[in-house]
Design goal:
Elements lengths: L3 E6 L4 H11 L4 E7 L8 H4 L11 E2 L3 H7 L2 E4 L10 H6 L3 E4 L9 H8 L5 H4 L6 E2 L2 H9 L3 E3 L3 H15 L8 E7 L14 H4 L4 E2 L8 H14 L7 H5 L6 E7 L6 E8 L6 H11 L6 E3 L8 H4 L5 E8 L4 E8 L7 H12 L10
Parallel strand pairs: 1-2, 1-4, 2-3, 4-5, 5-7, 6-7, 8-10, 12-13
Antiparallel strand pairs: 8-11, 9-10, 11-14, 13-14
Helix pairs in contact: 1-14, 7-14, 8-10
Length: about 350
């Protein structure tokens, strides 16, 4: 049986490395090209010694013509605003693309330019309508037939999956949603930064970018779609443009750990509910989701239970005193928040079992 030929553009960032690590052991994939502008000419095992005796492949500079000719599917693990220069050329050659930047997550190019300070060129702007937001638990059918998937951000994955059933079934009010989230340091990528030095992070805990974090429009777009349109995979841009979309208050924090995200959502119930009723709603919503684990109250998920897996673990408690429900959702930011979810999307797009290569 012919294997899927896959390439990774940006293979030496944290996310790119995780994709390579997963695909080495994927039974239906052949790795073709691994590109890196920093380490081109080196063997991947020279950069990441853990790949010794597992992968003897040279990192190369990006040549779109060559990559397009020899690949069936390409992962673009590139910085925001860079993928839009690459994806159109790949798609024109008939190559499927899973983009791990934010470039195709937002349906409205005006909103994208506002938050990322760069506009789409005409070719790239024309792809926004065909790009599918790559959250399999909500958009499985659309992902299955797509040639361009916008892999969600790590914070949005944990947050959207955590509160989606509450909004889908209108169990909570759409106003006044507060999200408090904590991430390990790999969420900021491999680029050197003073704030991420060991001596700055160790034995420390801090909030950052508490106003205007660029994951906010992505989260609001998807939560609005779920609430206003239900679970049909339609993004209600008009509602958002006219101010009817959901707005959230989002505060991210940096944990002194390498990986993992724990998000806490505070939402107001529409009417009094028992925890058993809410549990049934979550179990119904995620009944076909192999990578979502629901914790029955009073048990709650923890970061150490999800790290190293492609699971999103979700738990909740109802505080009847204030008519509020508190949602805890936990993921590994490099797996379900990035590389693992990207491979999950690849499996769906390629007709493989959804869990193939991801049961580590």
């Amino acid at each position: 049986m012919r294997k899927l030929k896959a390439s990774v553009i940006g293979a030496t960032g944290y996310t790119g490395k995780e994709i390579v690590r997963i695909l080495i052991n994927h039974p239906q994939v052949e790795l073709v090209y691994l590109t890196s502008s920093t380490y081109a000419g080196k063997k991947v095992a020279e950069v990441f010694p853990e790949f010794r005796s597992k992968l003897d492949q040279e990192l190369v500079n990006l040549d779109l013509e060559t990559v397009s000719r020899d690949s069936d599917l390409v992962f673009t693990a590139l910085p925001h605003t860079v993928s839009m220069e690459v994806a159109p050329a790949l798609l024109r050659k008939g190559v499927k693309v899973i983009d791990l930047s934010a470039d195709y997550r937002l349906k409205d190019p005006v909103v994208y330019q506002e938050w990322y300070k760069k506009g789409h060129n005409q070719l790239s702007k024309g792809l926004l309508a065909q790009a599918v937001y790559g959250l399999p638990e909500i958009y499985f059918d659309k992902i299955k037939g797509s040639s361009l998937v916008a892999n969600p951000g790590c914070y949005p994955t944990s947050i959207i999956l955590g509160v989606a059933p509450l909004l889908k079934y209108h169990l909570v009010k759409p106003e006044g949603i507060i999200i408090d989230a904590k991430s390990g340091t790999t969420g900021a990528g491999r680029k050197l930064s003073l704030d991420l030095h060991f001596s700055e992070c160790n034995e420390n805990f801090k909030a950052y970018k508490i106003i205007g974090h660029n994951h906010i429009p992505e989260i609001e777009q998807e939560l609005s779609s779920i609430y206003f349109k239900g679970n049909k995979g339609e993004n209600n841009i008009q509602d958002i443009k006219e101010g009817r979309g959901i707005k959230i208050s989002f505060t991210p924090h940096l944990l002194p750990i390498s990986r993992g995200i724990l998000s806490t959502g505070y939402l107001t119930l529409e009417e009094s509910k028992e925890e058993g009723e809410v549990l049934e709603a979550y179990q119904k919503f995620y009944q076909k989701a192999p990578f979502v684990r629901i914790f029955e109250p009073p048990y709650l998920p923890e970061i150490k239970l999800a790290v190293g897996t492609n699971y999103c673990d979700i738990g909740f408690r109802i505080d009847k005193r204030v008519s509020q429900i508190k949602i805890i959702s936990v993921i590994d930011n490099l797996l379900k928040g990035a590389a693992g979810q990207a491979v999950q999307n690849m499996n769906i797009m390629s007709g493989f079992p959804e869990t193939e290569g991801l049961n580590f």
